[in-house]
Every structure is written in C-alpha cells, then in structure tokens.
Design a protein that fits this description.
The complex is a heterodimer of chains A (about 725) and B (about 150). Chain A has about 725 residues and is α+β, with helices and mostly antiparallel strands. Chain A has three domains: about 210 residues, Aldehyde oxidase/xanthine dehydrogenase, molybdopterin binding domain (Aldehyde Oxidoreductase, domain 4, 2-Layer Sandwich), CATH 3.30.365; about 150 residues, Aldehyde oxidase/xanthine dehydrogenase, molybdopterin binding domain (Aldehyde Oxidoreductase, domain 4, 2-Layer Sandwich); about 325 residues, 2-Layer Sandwich (Aldehyde Oxidoreductase, domain 4), CATH 3.30.365.10. Helix content of chain A is about 25%, strand content about 25%. Chain A has 18 helices and 29 strands. In chain A, strands 11-12-9-19-16-17-18 form a seven-stranded mixed beta sheet. In chain A, strands 14-22-21-20-15-29 form a six-stranded mixed beta sheet, sandwiched between helices. In chain A, helix 13 runs parallel beside helix 17 and helix 16 packs across helix 17. Chain A is globular and about 85 Å long. Chain B is an alpha+beta fold and about 150 residues long. Chain B folds into two domains: about 80 residues, Roll (Ubiquitin-like (UB roll)); about 60 residues, [2Fe-2S]-binding domain (DNA polymerase, domain 1). Helices cover about 35% and strands about 15% of the residues of chain B. In chain B, strand 1 and strand 2 form a beta hairpin. The longest helix of chain B has 14 residues. Classes of the chains: A alpha+beta (about 725), B alpha+beta (about 150).
C-alpha cells in the first residue's frame, strides 16, 4: 500500500457519506445487525433499521464482524460474492470476518457506474458487466473505509497515520508493535474531516492481493443452495396471499376473447378473472385451483398480428432471396472491402443459419406483488437482473409513484438475459391491484417457453478475399433476421488482422418476442466467423491453428489463449481414430478465450459426442478463480446444449415446442469426459466472465466435424437429423 | 375437500386439498417446504425430486392421494439434520451450485443412488442423474461431487 498524503482530491466530511468516490461509506456501530436477507417472507426492510444517511457499503460491528453490502442480483454468476471480495481486499479485511448482505435497491448509492455512455449509475446485471463495472469504485470504497480506520487509530494512539499499516482485520503500529482488531476500532471511531480519493497507484499492489485471485474463497450463496434454504421469489409466501396464472395465446401478441366467462365465474375458489391485452389472468385461492381453471378457459384468440404470418423454417430459407428488408444498417465499414474482393486471388463465400433458442432458466418466471389497501403503494418480491428498474416499470404500469414501489430482491433461478425485462413483475402487480390482495404469479413451464423471448434466428452470409499468399484481406458479413442489435453483437473481429471488413444488418420483422440470450449475437456470429475461417483454412491446406496464429499475430492477449489452449489439447498430436478436434476463438465483454473440442460421430444416428473440451481464457484480473472456471464450464455446457439439441420453431405464429420433452436441453449422460479451463494470469482490469465461453462452442464443434468428415455444418442446432442429412449429401 | 395424512420428514402432517393436487404443490404451498422446486410440471426436469420410502420420485407427477398413509416422504429439508449429508458437504467443497434452483433435486436424486450403491461407476452416475436438468451447466461438478461423496459413505 502506498502512502496517501499526496492525494489529489478530497471531499468534505459533510458530504462524504454520500459522494465519496461516488459511493456512500458508513461505518456504523450497529448493535443488532439485521440477519434477514433482503428477500424475506415478512418483508422486513433493512433500510428501516439503519438511518438513511448511514445506508452504506460497510458496517463494522464491535465483535469484528464486517458486513458488506452486495448490490448484485445473484443468478448463478457469483457476483454477490465477487463484489464484496473486491471491497474487502482494499479494506484488508479477513474474509472470515465478512458477512455479505444484498444491498438495498438504491441505484444512486449502489448502482453500477460501469455502463459507459451516460455515466448514470444503474442496478442492472447484464452483459457480464457487474464485476468489471464495479471494480474501480469498490476498490476505492474499500480503500476509503480502511483510511477511516487508520485515521481513528492514529488519533487515539497519537501516532502519525503514515506509521500505521494493516494486516487482515488488524491495524498495526510497527514501531511499537501495537495491534488493534478492526472490531475494537468501533469504540474509538473518528470519522475524518476529509476522505481522500485514492489514485490507482495508491491502491493495493496486485502482487499483495490476498482475496482477489484466491482459489479458496467460496461463494456465499453456495451453502444455502445445498439445503433448500435459498429463497427464490417462487418460494416467498406473504400473509393473505392468493395465486395467479395467466393464459396467453399461442401466437405472440394475439388478443383473447373469453367465451365461457359466466361458467368459469361459478367455480369455487376463483377470486377473479383479469383481462389483459394478450391474456386472461386467473386468480384463485390455491395454485392448483388457478391452474385447473386456466385449463378450462375457452378463449377465442384474435390472431390478426404480425407473428401469425410467421413460419420460422420457411422464413429462414427465404432470407437469402429477399430483395427488400424492413431496415438495413451498416454496422462496420473498415477499409475497402469491394476493392479487396476485386483484387483477390480467391474469393470464398458461405452461409450459416441458426434457429431460435429459448432461455430455459430453471425457475419459471414468477413474482409476488402485494398492493396496499389504498392502492397507492405496492411491495414486490422478485428475482430480477435489473432491480433498479422494477420501481419505474411497475409504477408506470400501475400509475403509481416509483418511490411507492418496494422491491425485495430474491435469488434468481437463472437469468440468462430473460430476467432483465419485467413483464412478469408487472403482471403480478396488475393481478394484485385487480383483486386487492397479495398475489403470487407463476408462469408454468409451458407459459415460459411458449410466451418466451428468444434468441433470434438469423442468416449469416460470409464472403472473404484471399491474396496470393493466403492472407485474408477482406471479410464481408451480412446478417439477416429480426431483433436489431440482438443480431449485431460479436460480428466485429477486433483480434484478427483483416484490413478490410464490413458488417451489414438486414432487419426482417417477424413479430416473435426476442431478447438477449447468454452472449446475445455472439453465439450465431462467432459460429459463422469461426466456421468460415476453418473452411478457408481447409481449402487452402493450412492448419486452422496456424491460420489463427497469423491472424492474431498482433494481438498478444488473444494469441496467448490460442497457444495455451492448443497446448492443453495437445493439438499437434492427432486424436485417436474416429475422433477429430476443432478450434474456435471468441471474445465477449472483454474476456478472450479459445476453445478446442474433441468429438466423435455416430454415423448411423447422426449424433455428435463431445469427448473433451479445453479452453484458456484471459479475463483480466479474476476476482474468484474457481467461480470464473465454473462460469466457463457452465457456458461451454450451455453452448453444447444449444449447439447440439436446442431448437425452437414457429408455424404460422404458433410455437411448436412446449416443455422439456420437445425442447431438449443437454442431460448428464452427454457431458464430456473432461472439461479443462485455464485462466491466463493477469493484473489487467477484470473483464466479463459469465458469457465468454458460450460463443466458442458452435465453431469448435463445426470445425471438428469438418476435420472428421470433410463436410460442413452450417445450421444450428446440429441435431442428429440435420447431421445425417449433411453426411448423406 | 378431503383431508390427507402424510408423513413428511418423519413428521405427520394433515392437508386439506382437492384430490388430484400434486404432491409438489402440497409440499410447497400447503406445507411450506420450499426446497423442492417446480421446474416443468411433467416429470422432465427433476427439480422436484423427493424420496418416497427412499426411492427418488418427481413430486410434480404424483397426485397427493397416490402417497398413501404410512409412506415416508423425504424432502431436501429432511435429508440431513444440519445440511451435512456427505453429498451436501461435497456440493459445497466442489462449489457445485450456480443459480442453485435445480440443486435440491440433484442432491435428492444423487442421495438415492448412494443409498443403494456407495461405489457407483461413471456410467451408473450418469445414467442415474440423466433425468435431472441443470441449465447453468454444473454437470461436471455434480459428477465430481457425487464421486467424492461416495468415498465418504
């Protein structure tokens, strides 16, 4: 730790509680630290226990317990733990003294400033931006909290602050050998007039990190997730609560006309029917009754909507022949692609396609809403990726003031992008308002799947120019589909030295609900790019690893992942007969990784088996290495699942799948024999780890298939049926 | 509404529900045992796995009347006294859960295996666990945790 006397900026004590480092810091003596999580059954709010102005990141207790607020929504990505680790590192806290609590929903204090653009702080956990977005400010908050402790001790011991240092949860005076535990400082706490703003070089030297990059720090949510005690929104019960379900159309946007309303209304246990633009809400005394009545609704659906004209497989086939699109955008124009194509020694072209995929987060959407008697305020229990946006969304829908909407954030049984939109929360609020009772709204799995919001299907048309030395001199990538920017991410090639590049987006509206799905456009786009590179390499007689080495020569971070992965996979030694390896590179949210898989093929059934997967990733500074590996592993398995079996199709607007029997996720019998992850050591800023590995899977498998069979798979998913067709072609 | 007597986690319970109500809703919404999860409602995902007389069953596919008096129902809450079943300890050691939603079902399914076979082969583990979905992709760690727990039993 550097000396802190030459601080360039400081803030006055009067304001520090709110604005120091953009953060509120309060060290308060809390006689009784509330033990409740923010998602509690009785809805008790921790904010009421601590004065507003002391609503802060750190609470230090006399017995030494250090409570740190985590503002992250926890959906399995681990940020609930990672964020407090960052703060605790600079605070020099002993991790065993730390207790983590979910922070109040207050974006001004607890928001993520790392979203760029506006600089506005928001509470939204998307795009793998939570850790990277909070990193700088939480280090600052940790360092400033530590400063307050040092200052307090320096006053009491009457020694210069420069003579004090810290060891885990201890302030130390080297000269006298005196030590004082953090907890004992509570009694002598003296908040200084000014709190310095620490510059990067005044913060801990990464060499001295004890918590960051520490493999042995487990996630705080893991133990309660092994006993059934972890509280997801669906587990919340509030007094007087009744149950809501909604029957929605099979065609997105269709509007209902309930034919047998009178008959339905005679049902015992029914509390009310609630008409929505796109569905009929059923509120009943019990969940089983609500579900039973839902089945009995006789609804005439008005399907005069855009989606009703949409049949996915026909539409996808038509994309390459369309002369007109609803909109066309030039996403990237670098150099002169046309000229390079004209000068090329050889021009390659290829097309790739992908069907819709569904989030399939294991906890179906649900929320609990409890409207007040005067209908002016509402309390919500929900798992959401965007806790900072719930109040606005619900207030807007119900005509309330946002400050009268209170959210209790629960664990998310998976987010994957789906829980960043609050349609399900608004619905619960609408039902609660309609019946003036607390309502638990549950989407059935069928509701969740059929009225889902999918990763869009798309067509990728690739064209490349090669010069006489085999260099790729130009790459043209045209994406066609619905979903605007959902299609765009991942199309840029920032780590391949291709001098001329263009990416165009043709938008065709289909009326099907679409949304961010883990890694968004990176899945389809990296599939197209990485497969195309191998097709070119194959035709040129170049090893795909060599081809990428050349392209990445000027990008050492990317190259390192390539070399490391090749080493892990023993790329230069061929696999046993009947197997082949494929390689792909990807980047997402700043993390770079290469993946290599080894596959075999059952030629009778068309089933591809992934035996091994290796990946080296550069995610910058890794807060929690074991969790980062878990994210990489999960991303790869979700990738394999989506690439080999997941397919959602639409016929005249009707979603053809309904549950896990016909929308098939990867199961345990199909796991690889090994899945190895290496984290490239780095002290650079942390990058997003949650989605890094998913986009490399399709290319790696397609490229292994090319190596094994000489044939190309160009349509996701590579279902056995499709693979058979390719083999027979 | 009929009254059903159940034995859940060694405790006698009475519930007053319509016939046909699934055991899943009885456990969760009527008895407040929230560790057993709803994932699909059609026996395809295993999130609602419980034990009936030691056998792994899907609570979403069982009407309450099918669980007659005397049958012993065990949920994740009743698997161990302090959350210290060898599998639960292995789950923590291997940092298995991500979102965690499917994990009660995974642990209950695995516990039924180890109860009958404390030295399962790779194939036996994979086959036994094949009905339990995990969207986060924690399968590698589930496998490793079961293997290491089997050595403790």
């Amino acid at each position: 730790m550097k000396n802190y006397q030459d601080n360039s900026t400081s803030v006055s004590r009067r304001n520090f509680l709110k604005v120091s480092g953009g953060f509120t810091i309060g060290i308060t003596v809390v006689g009784l630290v509330p033990q409740l999580t923010s998602c509690t059954e009785d809805g008790e709010d921790t904010r009421e226990m601590v004065a507003k102005e002391l609503n802060a990141w750190v609470h230090l207790r006399e017995d030494g317990q250090i409570m740190i607020y985590s503002p992250a929504s926890e959906m399995g990505q681990g940020s609930k733990t990672a964020l407090p680790v960052i703060l605790a590192e600079e605070l020099d806290a002993d991790w065993s003294d730390v207790m983590v609590k979910t922070s109040p929903i207050d974006p001004e204090i607890y928001g993520n400033a790392g979203f760029g653009r506006s600089g506005r702080k928001i509470m939204m956990n998307v795009g793998s931006r939570t850790v990277k977005g909070y990193f700088d400010s939480l280090r600052q908050a940790g360092a400033q909290t530590r400063y307050i402790l040092l200052h307090s001790v320096s006053k009491t011991w009457e020694v210069p602050i420069e003579e004090l240092s810290t060891e885990p949860s201890l302030v130390v005076h080297q000269k006298s050998g005196k030590k004082i535990p953090y907890g004992d400082i509570v009694e002598i706490l003296d908040i200084p007039e000014t709190i310095p703003e620490f510059s990067i070089d005044q913060l801990k030297n990464p060499e001295d990190f004890r918590l960051i990059w520490n493999e042995s720090i487990g996630r705080v949510d893991v133990p309660e997730k092994t006993t059934g005690e972890a509280v997801f929104a669906i587990d919340v019960k509030v007094p007087g609560m009744v149950y809501g379900v909604i029957e929605r159309g099979k065609v997105h946007g269709a509007s209902p006309n309930l034919i047998n309303e009178a008959e339905i209304r005679t049902q015992d246990g029914l509390i009310d029917l609630v008409a929505l633009d796109y569905g009929i809400g059923v509120v009943a005394n019990t969940l089983e009754k609500a579900l039973e009545i839902k089945q009995q609704l006789n609804i005439d659906w008005n399907t005069d909507v855009l989606a009703a004209k949409h049949s996915s497989q026909e539409a996808l086939e038509s994309y390459s022949k369309l002369n007109q699109h609803d909109e066309t955008r030039d996403l990237i124009e670098k150099g002169n692609v046309k000229q390079a194509m004209a000068k090329a020694a050889k021009v390659y072209s290829a097309e790739y396609k992908n069907d819709y995929v569904y989030h399939a987060q294991m906890e179906p959407l649900n929320a609990i809403a409890s409207i007040s008697e005067d209908q002016n305020s509402i309390e919500i229990w929900a798992g959401t990726q965007g806790p900072g946006f719930v109040a606005g969304a619900v207030a807007n829908a119900l005509g309330l003031e946002p400050e009268n909407v209170k959210l209790n954030l629960c664990y998310l049984g998976g987010g994957l992008g789906r829980r960043s939109l609050h349609d399900y929360v608004i619905e619960a609020a609408q039902l609660s308002k309609a019946v003036s009772k607390p309502v638990k709204l549950i989407w059935t799995r069928e509701d969740d799947l059929r009225y889902g919001m999918y990763r869009p299907m798309s067509l990728q048309q690739m064209k490349a120019a090669i010069d006489s030395e085999g260099n790729i001199t130009a790459l043209s990538h045209v994406i066609t589909g619905d979903g605007s920017n959902l299609l765009a991410s991942g199309a840029a090639n920032e780590f391949y030295a291709i001098p001329n590049q263009e990416v165009k987006l043709n938008i065709v509206k289909n009326g099907v609900r679409l949304k961010h799905w883990r890694a968004v456009g990176h899945g389809p786009n990296k599939f197209a790019i990485e497969s195309f590179i191998d097709q070119i390499a194959n035709d040129q007689g170049v090893n795909p690893l060599e081809m990428r080495r050349k392209l990445m020569a000027n990008f050492p971070r990317a190259l390192k992942t390539l070399e490391k992965t090749a080493e892990m996979a023993n790329w230069d030694t061929p696999p046993r007969p009947g197997r082949a390896r494929g390689i792909a590179f990807g980047e997402r949210s700043g993390a770079l990784c290469t993946g290599i898989c080894e596959i075999s093929l059952d030629r009778d059934s068309g089933k591809i088996k992934v035996h091994h997967f290796w990946s080296a990733v550069d995610g910058g500074t890794i807060i929690q290495p074991d969790n980062a590996k878990a994210q990489m592993e999960g991303g790869i398995l979700m990738g394999i699942s989506s690439v080999l079996s997941e397919q959602l199709t639409v016929e005249k607007g009707e979603i053809q799948q309904s549950n896990f029997h016909d929308y098939q996720l990867m199961r345990m019998a199909d796991i690889p024999e090994s899945l190895e992850i290496e984290l490239i050591p780095s002290n650079d800023k942390p990058q997003g780890m949650g989605e890094a590995s998913t986009p490399i899977v399709a290319g790696a498998i397609a490229n292994a298939f090319l190596a094994l069979t000489g044939k190309t798979l160009n349509h996701l998913p590579f279902s056995p049926e499709r693979v058979k067709k390719v083999l027979d072609s | 509404m009929p009254i059903f007597s159940l034995k859940v986690n060694s405790k006698s319970e009475e519930v007053n529900v319509d016939s046909g109500t699934t055991l899943l809703w009885v456990l969760r919404e009527h008895l407040g045992l929230m560790g057993t999860k709803y994932g699909c409602g059609v026996g395809q995902c295993g999130s609602c796995t419980i034990h009936i007389n030691g056998n792994p069953m899907r609570a979403c596919a069982l009407p309450v009347e099918a669980v007659s008096e005397g049958q012993s129902i065990t949920t994740i809450e009743g698997l161990s006294k302090k959350g210290d079943h060898p599998l639960q300890k292995a789950w923590v050691e291997h940092q298995v859960p991500q979102c965690g939603y499917c994990q009660s079902g995974q642990i209950m399914q695995a516990a039924a295996l180890l109860e009958k076979n404390n030295n399962p082969t790779r194939e036996e583990i994979l086959n036994h666990m094949n009905g339990n979905l995990c969207r986060c992709g924690t399968y590698m760690r589930i496998f490793n945790a079961i293997e290491s727990a089997s050595k403790e039993i």
